[in-house]
Design a protein that fits this description.
Structural class: alpha/beta
Shape: elongated
Strand order of the largest sheet: 1-2-10-7-8-9
Radius of gyration: 25 Å
CATH topology of the largest domain: Rossmann fold
Number of helices: 18
Largest sheet: 6 strands, mixed
CATH class of the largest domain: Alpha Beta
Oligomer: single chain
Helix content: 40-55%
CATH architecture of the largest domain: 3-Layer(aba) Sandwich
Strand content: 15-25%
Number of strands: 14
Number of domains: 3
């Protein structure tokens, strides 16, 4: 079995390895564009250039590392097959490229992996095996199976060849946008930022590399500072929600990365929404983390030329829908009003007429008469409306109050 450790024993992880991976894999992945986005730049207060890795065949950058590793295998290793552990983008990248090259691929995924992810991996030609209740247990199962079946293990982030393949992004970004001052990269296991840092610093030593990880999973910060901040909880950026980073990436990050920032769930959700509504592209939580950092630390990037790595777009449709609706609530375009009114004919029609006259879209109505804090001849109306912006919402509420009704905004967390 080729373990990550043995890989690092036999090759030197440096810019030359990244350049070799680029040459070896030429034509086997999409050279995605790095595009300046004026409207996004105006919103963020800096010049924003987006690297669209969601345009890869499998929707994420992981396909680069997979093909970089697969093209180093001997004929005997190819014949025996490969194995990987992943619940998402790495699984799909390995399955896609291994199948394309005629290499048998087994993908170990934890129990409870969403069906759409197992199905996509199978559709790309991978043999899916469900083992373990989490990534750690699935990883142990994959290592055991690799040894028992003489399979080559392709680690998602702690393998020198995988890291070198992902690092090609750094060269591409600076060729496409040589004016960049900063490159902001999502951090999970650390393979992506280590590879990009090697390439970008080789090509332009003055460029800053900034890492971004979820506030709930500060694993790289822990590794760099020997800290023990908790890494747990549900995050929209499940692709970078890891407890332990790869050992190969740590020294590279220490020497090449300016700093690693954490970003809140709110700002990652806002990043997803901004990509969808303003940039007209789809980002998963991890892919939106760099944009979330620009939202959270505006002074850190103000006036600079900033490249953000949109690492992937494989977000579940229901999750995307939920995030977009939550953001509309957050900015006041969708709000639920609790209105007390006399329980008599015509009250509801007055409120509906105000909404119609002012152009507020009524999304949902609930009508209750039995709340004990109301008088017996009163009712409470729950009215969810969509407005153009917060000023429009305020106008609607002012008119309803002027018509004699008592009104409050209901907390969106209320059941």
């Amino acid at each position: 079995m080729n373990s990550p450790a043995s890989s690092s024993d036999t090759v030197t992880l440096d810019p030359a390895l990244v350049r070799a991976a680029r040459e070896r894999t030429k034509g086997q992945f999409i050279v995605t564009p790095t595009v300046f986005r004026p409207a996004l730049s105006q919103t963020m207060g800096c010049d924003v250039y987006v690297k669209y890795e969601n345009m890869q065949h499998t929707g994420a950058f992981k396909a680069r590392g997979a093909i970089a590793k697969l093209t180093t295998l001997t004929d005997a290793q190819k014949k025996a097959g490969v194995i990987a552990m992943s619940a998402g983008n790495h699984a799909q990248g390995v399955a896609f490229h291994a199948t394309r090259l005629g290499i048998p691929a087994t993908i170990v995924m934890p129990f409870g992996t969403p069906f759409n992810k197992t199905r996509k991996t199978s559709d790309y030609g991978g043999k899916v095996v469900l083992e373990g209740n989490n990534f750690t247990e699935a990883s142990a199962a994959a290592q055991r199976m690799a040894k028992e079946q003489n399979l080559t293990l392709i680690h998602p982030y702690d393998d020198a060849h995988v890291i070198s393949g992902q690092g090609v992004i750094g060269y591409e970004m600076l060729e496409q946008a040589p004016e960049l001052d900063v490159i902001v990269v999502p951090v999970g296991g650390g393979g992506l930022i280590a590879g990009i840092a090697l390439a970008a610093k080789d090509m332009k030593p003055s460029v800053e590399i900034i890492g971004v990880e979820p506030e709930l999973y500060p694993s790289m910060i822990n590794a760099l500072t020997r800290g023990n901040r908790p890494c747990m909880g549900s995050t929209v950026a499940e692709g970078i929600a890891v407890r332990d980073v790869g050992q190969l990436s740590i020294p590279i990050v220490k020497s090449h990365v300016k700093e690693t920032l954490t970003v809140t769930e709110t700002n990652m959700e806002r990043g997803i929404s901004i990509y969808a509504t303003m940039v007209k592209t789809v980002a998963e939580g991890a892919g939106a983390a760099p944009l979330g950092a620009l939202l959270e630390y505006p002074d850190r990037f103000k006036g600079r030329k900033v490249g953000v790595v949109l690492s992937g777009g494989n977000i579940d449709a229901r999750m995307l829908s939920s995030v977009l609706m939550r953001d509309l609530v957050r900015v006041g375009q969708v709000l639920t009003l609790s209105i007390e009114m006399p329980d008599r004919p015509g009250s509801l029609s007055i409120i509906a007429a105000i909404c119609a006259e002012l152009g507020a879209n009524v999304l949902e109505i609930s009508h209750g008469r039995f709340a004990l804090d109301l008088s017996a001849n009163a009712a409470r109306l729950g009215l969810t409306i969509e407005t153009r912006d917060s000023a429009h919402a305020q106008l609607v509420m002012d008119r309803i109050r002027a018509a004699g009704f008592t009104l409050t905004i209901r907390d969106p967390n209320e059941t």
